[in-house]
Amino acid sequence: MTVVLGADQDQHRATLSAGMRHRALVYLPLSALLVDVMLIGVTAVLAVAGRNSLALFDRGADVTDTLGVVGPALFVVWIVTIGAVGGYSRSVFGAGPDEYKRVFNASLFTAGIIGIGCYLAKFQLSRGFFLLAIGIGIPLLLLGRFGLRRLLHQAYRAGLLRHRVIIAGRPSHVDEIAAVLKRETSLGYQVVGAVTPAGHVSGTTASGIEVLGDSDELAASVKRAEADIVFFASGAFRTSDEMRRAAWDLEQHKTQVVVAPSVTDVARERVTVRPVGGLPLMHLDTARSAKASRWAKRTFDLLGASTLIVLFSPLLLLAALRVKAFDRGPVLFRQTRTGRDGHEFACFKFRTMVVDAEARLAALHAEAGFDGGLFKMRDDPRITKPGRWLRRFSIDELPQLFNVVRGEMSLVGPRPPLPSEVATYDDAMRRRLRVLPGMTGLWQISGRSDLSWEEAIRLDIYYVDNWSMVQDLSILARTLGAVVSSRGAY
């Protein structure tokens, strides 16, 4: 019997926790495999039922006669193909679209293999069953991965299954990477310390991360901290040979190594890694702000805004009547905002404040100690009773659909700034003006008024530099959840 006392008891608990965490992460691919097997089984049952009952297909033949051959083949080929393209690799779980892409591509490969195989073998495969199996199976598998990811993110937020991370590098770069990892909670990274170059004597970095030792003590620091992953940041080692030897030492502890370059806020679609002579070169595509101004996005905005105006016309009428009935003041609030390339325009909103709201602004600035940026108050006394309802569900912003139709705004883009804000912009902030401002954007789905001024600016610049139509569609879909939850709306 082993008795553990004092400080050794804490170390013992940490070791047990690390072991449980490691086993749980090891079982993650197995969990995904079991979910896929179950969903493929459900797909086969639904495809058979649909083939035998839907009027679209010939009911002369019973597909269950051939299911004994096609069923096992479908299971094996589908699962093996997902595994072959890396769908069960631990690195794809948790964040990013790579997991979904691999499952989707593997499903198309499976369809091709089954279809071509049955044709070459002259096997009488029911076309109805085949179409239903692929048409049902792909969405089910993607939904299964989505559900598994949501559970994983909930575990991360609860402090479970997190990777313990040590960052090796210059203190300033350590803080930059730690800030990103702290912000992106879906990655499940918990920074437990830093390792700095020899000669750095401070016990913590500027942001308060504990320095566990210098680069020469990296392996020992990893062992003491029970770390799973080490990030190699800029300045961690003097030469590439030192870095290679450090990676060799970490192999003995089965610690994962991640190299973090001095590049942040760049979407993966703009990054291409090409090894040349053993040297991995990272190629960055140019910023995509010009693509966000092309005719395709404008056509999408025009059609989308026009459709939404028609759909929301009863809600627009109801909101206008409530605003007018409250104090007989104007229905719309027109505020000068700055658009693309610095052009100013009148931004439309339903009026949510008292008529003399602008006259009271200076007093509120003094009361709140406002010193620049975007002014927001959680309990602004100027907001009217109908205004609180309009703001809670962002109904006050629906008149901006007419700004979109007029070409002054986009459905998705950076937040439209005030001219007074633009006057304080530096060169980096002015990048926000390269595209049309949007009714919604990354700032809207990431917290709205709960965001700091610096974080809102960062998200807007990220959007401008990494624009894509897929990202626009994703933001629009996630905006609905942000509006319904009313997170950050005041």
Q: How would you sum up this structure, described in words?
A:
It is a single chain. By secondary structure, the protein is of the alpha/beta class. It has 3 domains: 6-157, no CATH class; 163-264, Rossmann fold (3-Layer(aba) Sandwich); 291-485, no CATH class. It has helices at residues 6-53, 64-84, 98-120, 127-157, 171-183, 218-225, 240-251, 295-311, 313-327, 361-368, 385-392, 400-405, 419-422, 442-445, 453-465, 469-485; strands at 163-168, 189-196, 211-214, 229-232, 256-259, 271-276, 279-284, 332-338, 344-350, 410-412, 438-440. The protein has a 5-stranded parallel β-sheet with strand order 3-2-1-4-5, with helices on both faces. Strands 6-7 form a two-stranded antiparallel ribbon. The model is unreliable at 1-20 (pLDDT under 50).
Q: In sequence order, what are the helices and strands, one letter per element?
A: HHHHEHEEHEHEEEHHEEHHHEHEHHH
Evaluate the radius of gyration. Answer: 28 Å
Tell me the strand percentage band.
Answer: 5-15%
Strands of the biggest beta sheet: in what spatial order? Answer: 3-2-1-4-5
N/C terminus separation: 60 Å
Globally, the shape reads: globular
Largest sheet: 5 strands, parallel
Count the domains: 3
Number of strands: 11
Transmembrane segments: 25-49, 69-91, 103-122, 128-148, 300-321
InterPro entries: Bact_transf, EPS_sugar_tfrase
Organism: Nocardioides imazamoxiresistens
Protein name: Sugar transferase
Compact overview of the structure:
The chain has helices at 6-53, 64-84, 98-120, 127-157, 171-183, 218-225, 240-251, 295-311, 313-327, 361-368, 385-392, 400-405, 419-422, 442-445, 453-465, 469-485, and strands at 163-168, 189-196, 211-214, 229-232, 256-259, 271-276, 279-284, 332-338, 344-350, 410-412, 438-440. The protein is α/β, with parallel strands linked by helices and 490 residues long. It has three domains: 6-157, no CATH class; 163-264, NAD(P)-binding Rossmann-like Domain (Rossmann fold), CATH 3.40.50; 291-485, no CATH class.
